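TL;DR need structure tokens for one chain.
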Amino acid sequence: MAVEAVSGNGCEAVAPAPAKKVSAKEAVAVSKNASFREESNFLDDLKERERKALAELRDKVEAAIVEGKLFDDGKAEEKEAAAKKKTEVAMEEEVKKEKEAGAEEEEEQEEKKDADAVEKKEEEGKKETDAEEKNEEEGKEEANKVEHAEGEKQAETAATVVDKDIALWGVPLLPSKGDEATDVVLLKFLRARDFKAGAAFEMLRRTLRWRRDWKGFAGDEGADADGALLPEELEGACYLDGADREGHPVCYNALGVFADNVVYTKALGTEVGKARFLRWRVRAMERHVAELEFKPGGAVSLLQVTDLRNSPGPAKKDLRVAVKQVLDLFQDNYPELVARNILINVPFWYYAFSTLFYPFLTQRTKSKFVIARPSKVTETLLKYIPIEAIPVKYGGLKRDGDTEFSTEGGEVTELTVKTSSTETIEIEASEADSTLTWDLTVLGWEVNYKEEFVPADVGSYTIIISKGKKMGSAEEAVRNSFHAGEPGKVVLTVENTSHRKKKVLFRHKAKSSAKKC
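>> reply
TL;DR here they are.
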């Protein structure tokens, strides 16, 4: 017997469809296994070679800070060596001149054979006296020069400020302070330089000098005003939202904002605009790094997700140059602070575009890139981020300002629908006057989907909540709710007519409105 279903303002007969039924209580919970793991920051987990490199880098940093030479770029030594060489050359020239003068005197003495011997002796005595006076004056002059040079050197030494509290990203760099976060930071520079302590030390020095000279951090003159001068659309172009399976903060970058010519011209159309944009992106990175926890076992890096949907093609040279500048700055001055770079909604032109800047990236940086075509966005993100933490626009269940579900509440379950088959999910309403709420998404969609309420009383009507319809591949997650006036169950039906298996992810909650005596 057909059951009558109410739909909108009318009603229709619905024949029960043969399908495998799965209770929401029986569905398998989504696996929480980590998708990737970074190298350990615990000292006991390091290899012998790595421990030795860390010890060597510690010693170099300790000595440089104590001696006030951490920012030294080697120019002081070069100047001192040049001055020393110049003094040596001057002394050699003076000796040479004296020898030549002596030779001339001997020739003159030989020519003056008829000169009076007494007069000759007097002249020689006078010359010797003059030479002694000259040498004495030159000695005094040389001593004054040396004394002056030593004075300048002492003044420079006295002017050197030894800052033992110097820090990077809020972490003290002086190893003898005993902060475990110091080793975590030093390991980042070592890993970026394949555990070569000398190269890692020079990289750290260059980073510190760059941070000292860079005019783009908050508080720098003119930097704070950049936000007001840049297009408002950039506010949504780079932001943190949630965390991945390992606890890394997730940073989303949306380059589609540059498809608007007005935004593009204002942000990148002038040299001033480009410099302002670069400062803005560095300050955003600083805010994101401030969310990290630099300690062994902590979330010490970010997960970057860059959305290329609607982004301008390679013909937009200014954007291409700006992206390369950002990549270069981050690679040189924020080593190992990005765990993965996931590029989503990647168009075909990207592959040609990437050949322009890939050669300038280190092999380690290249290995962190993950690329996903539009049809694989949700599936790719799900390898790294829980479905409840993926925004709905990327096929996940996370909604801004969601009051129904939190990341801790409403456990997500999954169900696989085989090819050319149908699965139903049943959500029980065990008592009357209760509200059922659910989220559901299908990876890649391309299925038929419908929702209905089946009362427990066989004499009651089945109610169509949502008519069956074909769901396209770009559909967002479904969020719906139903107030049950009597006990029964909500039945969600997913029909897979494709030739590929489909994964369904869903969660639900029930809230009773009945008053208990």
